[in-house]
Design brief:
- 2 copies of one chain form a homodimer.
- Chain A has 245 residues and is α/β, with parallel strands linked by helices.
- Chain A has 2 domains: 4-64, Hypothetical PUA domain-like, domain 1 (Ribosomal Protein L25, Chain P); 72-238, SPOUT methyltransferase, trefoil knot domain (Alpha/beta knot, 3-Layer(aba) Sandwich), CATH 3.40.1280.
- Chain A has 8 helices and 12 strands.
- The first copy, chain A, has helices at residues 8-13, 20-28, 83-96, 117-120, 123-134, 149-153, 196-204, 219-233; strands spanning 4-6, 15-16, 36-41, 46-53, 57-64, 72-79, 98-104, 142-146, 161-165, 172-173, 184-188, 208-211.
- Chain A has a 7-stranded parallel sheet with strand order 8-7-6-11-9-12-10, with helices on both faces. Chain A has a 5-stranded mixed sheet with strand order 1-3-4-5-2.
- In chain A, helix 3 packs parallel to helix 8.
- Chain A binds chain B through residues 2, 69, 72, 92, 95-97, 134-137, 167-168, 172-175, 211-218, 221, 224-225, 228-229, 231-232, 235-238, 240-243, and chain B through 2, 69, 72, 92, 95-97, 134-137, 167-168, 172-175, 211-218, 221, 224-225, 228-229, 231-232, 235-238, 240-243.
Amino acid sequence: MNLVLITKREAAEGIAADDPRVKHLVQTVGLRAGQSFHVGLAGALRGLAEITAITPFLTFNITWEQTVQTKLPLTVIVGLPRPQTAKKVLHDLASLGVARMIFFEAEKADPGYLTSSLWQEDEWQSHLRKGTEQACSTLVPEVLRTRSLEAALALVAENNWRVALDPYEASGALGEAPAGSIAGCLAIGPERGWSDAERKLLVARGFVLHHLGDRILRVEAACLVGGALMLARLHVWERHQSLGT
Amino acid sequence: MNLVLITKREAAEGIAADDPRVKHLVQTVGLRAGQSFHVGLAGALRGLAEITAITPFLTFNITWEQTVQTKLPLTVIVGLPRPQTAKKVLHDLASLGVARMIFFEAEKADPGYLTSSLWQEDEWQSHLRKGTEQACSTLVPEVLRTRSLEAALALVAENNWRVALDPYEASGALGEAPAGSIAGCLAIGPERGWSDAERKLLVARGFVLHHLGDRILRVEAACLVGGALMLARLHVWERHQSLGT
């Protein structure tokens, strides 16, 4: 991990030596007193933590950033995939820095996926958190689940550039954003693709069907590639704000 | 898999019923006589195979495409990553459809990675093949290994748009390709990043250092995102050629 998410209390008092994060920093990374690592408060500031002691608590002095990093203005709607795939989507879209993911129960998805421990317990949050830490960010994306595509689409803001990926019925490659776009929504079907009714609904709600060339990507790869292309076309990366600069 | 790579002999005589590909098609997908699946000859034509019998050989009649799919004009140079990461890079870049990958022994990489069964045996080829089959393509990328970045760079064609990803020393976000570009080369460091000498060498050889925003992606995600962005900017997806259209 490139950053360790901590609580306000841990920022003040340190983290117990037997915490998995401390074990990672001390045993795997090999950090010692005097050395530094990146920390952050979920949804808030990042900082550079200089270690003052390792036991019985890992304690540190934090130099905080001046301003909170910017949330990237992208919502990704995904047809509920197999739990193994959903884990990767959660991690990878968190590391890409999208603001929000909405998983919907697609017509061609298996509702049994929801009985997985990924969703029944808090497991999904740990993948999200790891992706955010990988990104060296504190901005854990918001994650929602809906019973249908229609319910997911009702949550999309009016002003969003609306793109759905569909290798079969696309009108063309994912290209430039409409002039003046400042936020986007990407919709991706489940492994078995969109139903005809879902395709019609997308078009009725202003989504344009695009492809990513003639290679068929896995759901998790399509999320990452489609999301990154939209962020690039929205020119959000030009407001670059890396930690320590 | 969206396509099954077969040999010329298998195209003529069928595939033995105990072959893992047949087990997948018959037992997992549930195909029966009269149903169809996509096949292809590595590096050559794709076709639609209609099943005529399941045992003792899976036999089929193939309707071949008219022309071979286009290779995508991108080379990706990657600092030799951990074997677990290399597997994902091989699969994902094959599914993206890049023409060539070059893995180099980076200054900040562990040469021990080369002793992995991934590279000592033919394991790397199976990941490459699976990624190509996932893409519904027959164009298995060329994979090379070099002892240094310098040796890798010597293999890059003169006319290539040259981009290196570097979240720390980048001059700006990965943006438009220089006018007239028809092919590209993307260079990505190993997990621990570029050495100063490697950065200097890249710049001396005409590479521009770019970032993908202020989130830090894993090596495999950076390969997929950086590669897709370059393909999009090279406008290669507009020559779309899906199977059966």
